[in-house]
Amino acid sequence: MRAITAMSCLALVLSFLALPSAGPAADEPWARITEDDRAIKVETDQLEAVIPKKNPKQWMTGIEKGSFLDKATGFREAGDGLMVIDWLMEPGSDKAWADKVFAKDGDGVGRYTWHENETDLGTKSYARMAHGSSHRKRMIEGPQLCHKMKPVKPEVIRGKDFVAVKTTYQFEYAAPGRKAGSRWTQLVVFPKGKRYFVLMDRIDSVNDAKEMFLRNDTPGCVRHVKGDTFSEIYLSYLSGPKGVRIPSSEFFTPFPPDLKFGYRRDTHKTPEHFIRAYHLRDKKTGKAGPWLAGLTLEPSVVYESWCSERPGNIIVMIQEIHGKPVKAGGSFSAVNIVGFFDTVEGMHEVYDRHKGHTALTADKSGWRLVK
């Protein structure tokens, strides 16, 4: 009887060990997703990142502030988050109606722009420093998603060698003569074994426009005091085919985006690669870290971009995509690779492997870049 009892107990233990475990432990061993009412946390073998659903630490779109971690070095992004989304826009002046366009929560549009007849010099000065004065822009649809987007319910997609998060949202109000309701989709794919993610922003428009574009931060802003968090910035599309490396000292004093380090498709030659990166360093020790880079895989989709020091010790890296004719029912998209790299050469190597793509898909069977 004792032998039978012992064998039964052993069989019972083995049967329990063979059962799949519940909860997070059931995830792929290289990737773990933790989700609650506020956010989705993605942890892979190389990275950590948080995508907010509500009550963000800074912005509602993209990768949450302070959450993007490179496990190889221990460094994090040094700004307010990555791939943050603003408005759907077009060239032109909104001075005739900007102060009359309001969201349901009372958020006005006019305070984000300035006009030649502006009487509030403080507002005018800030807007010039933030957005420049040589190329006027106006909103087609709002709100500024990063700032005023309501809670969302992103979809988590799991595959054998990747995890992905897909977020969608419809713009809620529009400029006079335009409709509200264009849909923004952001798909973020985290591949196994990579220190970067692949991200698509897509717009499905309900309006016609001659030069519609989506404004975002690529890869993201940089917070610093006299360059304490970074040593240099790399822009692949300035100063020849090898790009330019700009020391942090160039960003100690605020300057408007149309003064230097800017790019416009109508005034610049389209480059072979479109890469923007900053070289991290430890603000306490000065130790050099990795580069944090944003690679826009099809250079021709970039309408305008700038890298300027805004008042308040922040470098903004705004990028506007598309800027071409769109009809109601039409769409446009751009794909970026965003992550950590040890060298500038490494960025270009990854770029060459994936260049030319403007769309991204993902389902259980896999993720794919699309031209």
Overview of this protein structure:
- By secondary structure, the chain is mostly beta strands.
- It has a domain at 85-89 and 144-365: Distorted Sandwich (Beta-galactosidase, Chain A, domain 5), CATH 2.70.98.
- It is 12% helix and 39% strand.
- It has four helices and 25 strands.
- The chain has helices spanning 2-18, 121-131, 145-148, 344-354; strands at 32-35, 39-43, 47-52, 69-70, 85-91, 137-142, 155-159, 162-170, 173-174, 183-191, 196-204, 209-217, 222-223, 230-235, 244-247, 263-264, 274-281, 288-296, 302-305, 308-310, 314-316, 318-326, 331-341, 359-363, 366-370.
Characteristics:
single chain, 371 residues, mainly beta, Beta-galactosidase, Chain A, domain 5, nine-stranded antiparallel sheet, seven-stranded antiparallel sheet, 4 helices, 25 strands, 12% helix, disordered N terminus
Radius of gyration: 23 Å
**pLDDT < 50 stretches:** 1-26, 110-121
Helix content: 10-25%
The number of distinct β-strands equals: 25
Q: Largest sheet, order of strands side by side? A: 7-8-10-11-23-18-17-14-15
Secondary-structure content class: mainly beta
Mean pLDDT: 88
Please provide the ordered H/E string of secondary-structure elements. Answer: HEEEEEHEHEEEEEEEEEEEEEEEEEHEE
Q: Percent of residues in beta strands?
A: 35-45%
What is the molecular shape? globular
